[in-house]
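Data deposition worksheet. Section B asks for the primary sequence of the deposited chain exactly as it was used as input, without tags or linkers unless they were present during the calculation. Section C holds the resulting structure in token form. Section D is free text for depositor observations; keep each observation to a single sentence. Incomplete worksheets are returned to the depositor.
Section A, Depositor: J.P.
Section B:
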Amino acid sequence: MRGGGLVLSGCTPAVADYPAGARLPLRVIDDYEFVWMLRGRAVFVTPGWSAPLVPGSVVLIPPGFVHGIDWDPARPSRHGYVHFGFMDVPVAEPVFAPMTSDNPIAGLCAYLLAGGPVEETVRFLVSVVLAEPVLEPVSGPLAAAVSFLRSVWAELPLRRVTVVELAAAATVTRGYLNRVFQAEFGVSVAPRWNGCGVRGRRRCCCAPI
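Section C:
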């Protein structure tokens, strides 16, 4: 399927188990892949460098990049993964991103394995992993609204959030929240927040508070 600059490559999100000491030899894939550890540790290996893979982070592997994985030498390991094809802004190097309380990456990965809508979830996950950090912190009424959104998306990453809910969380009127949100993020709270305001979502999820 094609939409929003992303094409699924026929791979359903899945979980893979490896015995202790297993190795994935150096390889090149022809699509993008997200990999995140669920149990155990591993080492992401390239011809020139290596990096740890541990629970609590995700790596975006681009097509054409030579890499392998050395799975946990001491115990069995488990990881989640999903493949997809084209992106609007291609990346040439692997991108590592932590799963923290300041972003919805953990919830999105769990949502994929729970059978959530794959294309929309992967598109949102890409936008968060590749998000540029926000220089100014979110403060005032927006801090409460952002905190509420993070808690909602940690459980249901793609749930529609109403302006009424946001205003209630921020203890302000809907009109005031909309004006502040417009000034901070450059988009209105609704309807763009639940529709085409992916940039606003991404900035809000990654903004420090």
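Section D:
Residues 42 and 71 are 4 Å apart (CA to CA).
The chain has six helices and eleven strands.
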